C-alpha cells in the first residue's frame, strides 16, 4: 500500500506558498492588516518584518512567518489578500482609463463629444474650460494646474459611474463594435 503523505517536493512547494503569502501580509498597509484576523505571534512577526531592512535578515523573518503560517488555516488570509489585490488592480485600471481620456481630450477635438456620450453626468462646460486651459498651460510652459484639475474631474466622473454600477458606456461601445 503506497504512502499517502505528500512528497518532500510538495511539502516544500506548500511552505514556499505560505512564505509568499506571508510576504504579501508584510506589504499590506495598516488598515488592511487590521481587517485580517491573525494570531498575535504571527502579527508580531509581520510587524517585525516591516522594520527589517537588511536583505538576509528579512529573508529569514519571512521564512519564520511561513513557518508560523503552517500552524494556522491560510485560506481566510489568502482570500482577504486576494480581495485587496483585486481592488488594487481595479483602481489601477480606472486610473489608466482616466489618463487615456485626458490624453484624448487634449489631442482630439471630438473626444469631448464621445466622453459626454459615454458619461452623460459629466459637466460639459467645466470639461471644456479645463481642456482649453490645460492646452494653454502646455503651450505657455506654465505649471499644469488645469491639467491636474482635468484628471481629478475625469476621475470623479468615471468613479461616480462605477459607484452607481452604470454600464451605459459599455453598452454604447458594444453597439459601435457590432
List the helices and strands and how they pair.
Elements: H1 8-27, H2 30-34, H3 40-51, H4 55-69, H5 75-107, H6 111-118, H7 124-140, H8 145-164, H9 168-177
Helix pairs in contact: 1-3, 1-4, 3-4, 5-8, 7-8
Explain what you see.
The protein has 178 residues and is an all-alpha fold. It folds into 2 domains: 8-72, Orthogonal Bundle (Diphtheria Toxin Repressor, domain 2), CATH 1.10.60; 88-177, PSPTO4464-like domains (Diphtheria Toxin Repressor, domain 2), CATH 1.10.60.30. It is built from 9 helices and no strands. It has helices at residues 8-27, 30-34, 40-51, 55-69, 75-107, 111-118, 124-140, 145-164, 168-177. The longest helix is centred in the middle third of the chain and has 33 residues, at 75-107. The radius of gyration is 24 Å and the shape is elongated.
Summed up, the domain count is 2
Structural class: mainly alpha
- Total strand count, please? 0
> At the first level of CATH, what is the class of the largest domain?
Mainly Alpha
CATH topology of the largest domain: Diphtheria Toxin Repressor, domain 2
Distance between the termini: 60 Å
**What's the overall average pLDDT, rounded?**
87
- Large-scale geometry: elongated
- H/E topology pattern: HHHHHHHHH
For the CA atoms, what is the radius of gyration? Answer: 24 Å
Main sheet characteristics: none
CATH architecture level-2 label of the largest domain: Orthogonal Bundle
Low-pLDDT segments, ≥5 res: 167-178
Counting DSSP H or I runs of 4 or more residues, the number of helices is 9
Q: What share of residues are in beta strands?
A: under 5%
Q: Can you tell me the CATH superfamily of the largest domain?
A: PSPTO4464-like domains
Share of helical residues: over 70%
Amino acid at each position: 500500500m503506497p504512502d499517502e503523505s505528500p512528497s518532500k517536493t510538495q511539502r516544500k512547494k506548500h511552505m514556499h506558498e505560505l512564505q509568499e503569502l506571508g510576504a504579501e501580509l508584510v506589504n499590506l498597509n495598516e488598515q488592511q492588516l487590521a481587517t485580517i484576523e491573525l494570531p498575535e505571534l504571527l502579527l508580531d512577526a509581520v510587524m517585525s518584518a516591516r522594520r527589517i531592512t537588511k536583505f538576509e535578515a528579512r529573508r529569514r523573518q519571512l521564512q519564520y512567518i511561513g513557518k508560523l503560517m503552517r500552524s494556522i488555516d491560510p485560506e481566510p488570509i489568502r482570500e482577504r489578500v486576494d480581495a485587496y489585490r483585486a481592488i488594487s488592480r481595479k483602481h489601477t485600471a480606472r486610473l489608466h482609463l482616466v489618463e487615456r481620456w485626458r490624453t484624448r481630450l487634449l489631442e482630439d477635438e471630438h473626444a469631448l463629444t464621445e466622453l459626454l456620450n459615454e458619461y452623460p453626468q459629466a459637466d460639459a462646460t467645466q470639461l471644456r474650460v479645463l481642456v482649453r486651459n490645460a492646452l494653454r498651460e502646455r503651450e505657455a510652459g506654465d505649471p499644469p494646474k488645469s491639467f491636474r484639475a482635468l484628471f481629478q474631474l475625469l476621475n470623479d466622473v468615471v468613479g461616480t459611474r462605477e459607484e452607481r454600477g452604470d454600464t451605459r458606456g459599455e453598452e454604447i461601445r458594444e453597439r459601435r463594435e457590432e
